[in-house]
Design goal:
The complex is a heterodimer of chains A (about 325) and B (about 375). Chain A has about 325 residues and is an alpha/beta fold. Chain A has one domain: TIM Barrel, CATH 3.20.20. Chain A contains 13 helices and ten strands. In chain A, helix 1 runs antiparallel to helix 2, helix 6 crosses helix 7 and helix 11 crosses helix 13. Classes of the chains: A alpha/beta (about 325), B alpha/beta (about 375).
């Protein structure tokens, strides 16, 4: 079993960055001082990712106010809407409102990527909203049907991937909680597959990861298994191992083994046991381990502490298989 | 005491006036803060009850008074602000509280604060982890209630954060660690159940009991987190029942921004809850009747009072009294009994300016009067 590790969503802001951004809002500091804190915190996340032996770096996506904001602020057809609860959490995002069929603004998302990733695109993991979750979590007033919109967002994200491939990026993680929270059916499910086909066509040998969280993935597996992607990830805090279908899989198996809903640190031996059990069901050559859901549900310090379980599990698995 | 139809009440916090914030920090008031103090005093009449504090603040000599005395003046302001708006049940606008989570948690043992979590944009909140068995250091809200009791002219209604919300807004470390094996969904739920009931029994109930001993008769249990995990409605109920077990007071439960249909009928198992105080106005928009969910209460045969949210606390536009009266009328039709309706804002008004909050409260009172007149004299 080959084990790969990495972040699967945004990382929390450091306490210094919390202070700086608060002070900025209150007129107590300058934008330059906040920029300095952003840069410092991003470098700290990259250093942490390197220290923990992660296969790609994300730099934490600390500047993104939420998963959709860079798109809602730069793509055509969108405006930024009201605060909306983020899944079953006490955190919120500003719901994008789609007023007309969406259109990409070339270069806009690349300009919003964390600067350390732009300097080293080959080792970066680009985090993007998945087309289905994007479609489900926005307010569609464009007149376009939901299934058409899912497909269109898939094509636009495919174009985004194509542009970023041209800039040297190779690994793309699509955040898709809604695939398991509200599994699509019928035309919506077909639109999801079509959307990811558009992404696959743009990948050009790159890696695509669909990461699900927020609910038990069992009902969604028939669809997840059809997605033309490199890896499908499930959050083991929500999905029991025996809910993962048995049998060989075409895609890599992603397992969320760090739970951002609690500060309790995972036991590496217990995690290794569960990973082996999941792998035994799926028999994929590679297992991708990471947080089950974005770690920004935690403060910086406990998030940092909890991530140390990943190299420990990697070691435990390699010792176990030796 | 007999009340007419549609008595009115507040729900929670008000924005703190700048004079209070500066005064608490012993900073001299600038001209605008002085003007704010003077003008609100002229409108609601509170500062003459503590002239030495007022004079020290207006004279630019905050160190001649104390932060506690300024907080007292803030509480008096909150009380008079709500009373002179015409409400039947009032509190102090939560003038002494920073927020509804951190203060209660800091009165307990077993918690550790580990840093800030982003709520949205550049807004953050402190979130504690429970790392040991919950123990109450000392009952909280006692001093503030004693002060309100000593000064209120209308009936006090005290808001207390409920055990489910305290637990949901914390990281569950201690109780989760006690669950054997993999910490999946089933383990998390069992641990949460244990945590909520422990919080209710060991911290919230003793606090409620102490408040009741001191004469507190109406207590609002705030459970804004109740709708976060609809499948945990039974845990919300267990927490409420454990917190109020054997206590004699009038309990209400405030929930907001939730899909109430998802919580019913489980929520109806809350035994000693006399009133559901819920937000409705926020969802009452063209094309969507925000009050239709009340039909469910009628269908389930629930006969409790409803604290009816009739003004939206997230918009500055002030609802006209006629809009409020229309909302009350619809709710009365759905419930089939106007006598069970109390009228209030959707939630605490602290996100609005004092000026807007005041206008909305006056609209609550005037709208209730319009509805009362329509129901009591239907031919007029």
């Amino acid at each position: 079993m080959i084990v790969r590790t990495g972040l699967t969503g945004a990382f929390p802001r450091s306490e210094a960055l919390v202070t700086a951004t608060r002070d900025l809002d209150r007129g107590r500091t300058s934008a330059d001082a906040v920029e300095e804190q952003f840069a410092r915190a991003e470098e700290e996340v990259v250093a942490l990712e390197q220290r923990l032996g992660f296969d790609e770096r994300t730099a934490g996506y600390l500047r993104w106010p939420d998963l959709f904001r860079p798109f809602a602020e730069t793509w055509e057809g969108f405006t930024v809407g009201p605060l909306t609860r983020w899944l079953e959490t006490n955190t919120f995002y500003r719901q994008p409102i789609l007023l007309a069929p969406p259109g990409r603004t070339p270069g806009a998302i690349a300009a919003r990527l964390p600067p350390p990733l732009l300097r080293s695109p080959k080792t970066a993991r680009v985090l993007l909203p998945g087309p289905y979750s994007f479609s489900e979590m926005l307010d569609n007033r464009s007149g376009e049907t939901d299934s058409s919109l899912i497909h269109r967002l898939g094509r636009l994200l495919g174009d985004e991937v194509k542009e970023l491939r041209g800039r040297g990026f190779t690994t793309f993680l699509f955040s898709e909680p809604e695939l398991v929270v509200r599994p699509p059916e019928g035309p919506h499910a077909e639109a999801v597959v079509a959307g990811y086909r558009a992404v696959a066509a743009a990948l050009d040998g790159g890696t695509s990861i669909v990461w699900t969280y927020g609910a038990d993935a069992r009902p969604a597996f028939p669809l997840l298994d059809r997605l033309p992607v490199s890896v499908v990830g499930v959050d083991l805090a929500d999905t029991e191992v025996d809910h993962i279908p048995a049998g060989p899989s075409r895609t890599g198996l992603g397992l969320g083994v760090v739970d951002p809903r609690t500060t309790l640190e995972e036991d590496p031996a217990e995690v290794a046991r569960v990973v082996r059990a999941a792998h035994a069901r799926r028999r994929s050559s590679t297992v991708w381990l990471g947080p089950g859901a974005p770690l920004d549900l935690l403060p910086w310090e406990p998030a940092t502490r909890k991530l140390h379980v990943l190299p420990a599990v990697r070691r435990a698995l390699s010792e176990g298989s030796a | 005491m007999t009340r007419g139809l549609f008595p009115t009440q507040e729900i929670g916090s008000l924005a703190k006036p700048r004079w209070q914030l500066l005064g608490q920090r012993s900073e001299p008031l600038d001209e605008s803060a002085k003007e704010e103090l003077r003008s609100w005093d002229a409108r609601v009449g509170f500062a003459s009850e503590a002239p030495e504090v007022r004079d020290a603040l207006l004279a630019g000599r905050p160190r001649e008074t104390s932060p506690d005395a300024v907080r007292d003046l803030g509480a008096l302001f909150g009380l008079r602000f709500l009373e002179t708006a015409g409400l039947d049940r009032v509190y102090d606008g939560e003038a002494r509280r920073v927020e509804m989570y951190e203060h209660p948690i800091r009165q307990m043992h077993g918690f550790r604060f580990g840093g800030h979590v982003r709520s949205f944009d550049n807004k953050y909140y402190l979130k504690a982890a429970v790392t040991d068995e919950v123990r109450l250091d000392r009952p909280y809200h006692i001093d503030e209630f004693e002060f309100v009791k000593g000064h209120a002219r209308a009936q006090p209604k005290l808001p207390v954060t409920g055990p489910y919300t305290l637990a949901d807004w914390s990281y569950n470390e201690y109780y989760l660690a006690r669950q054997p094996g993999w910490k999946g969904r089933a383990a998390r739920r069992a641990a949460q159940q244990e945590f909520v009931v422990d919080l209710a029994r060991r911290a919230v109930r003793p606090t409620l009991s102490a408040l009741i001993e001191r004469g507190c008769r109406v207590i609002q249990i705030d459970e804004p987190a109740a709708g976060t995990h609809p499948d945990e409605a039974a845990i919300v109920v267990d927490g409420f029942n454990a917190a109020t077990e054997g206590l004699d007071a009038e309990f209400t439960m405030h929930i907001c921004y939730s899909n109430y249909a998802d919580l019913l009928p489980t929520l109806l198992e809350a035994k000693r809850c006399r009133q559901w105080a819920w937000e409705f106005a926020n969802r009452d928009v063209p094309g969507h009747d925000g009050y239709a969910v009340l039909k469910l209460l009628a269908e389930y045969g629930d006969r409790r009072e409803v604290g009816l949210g009739v003004v939206d606390v997230h918009r500055d536009a002030v609802e006209a009294p006629e809009v409020v009266a229309d909302r009350i009328g619809r709710a009365a039709t759905y419930l089939g009994d106007p006598s069970r309706i109390w009228v209030n804002p959707d939630c605490g008004l602290r996100t609005r300016s004092l000026e807007v909050a005041r206008a909305k409260l006056v609209s609550v009172v005037n709208g209730a009067a319009l509805a009362r007149a329509a129901f009591e004299n239907p031919r007029r």
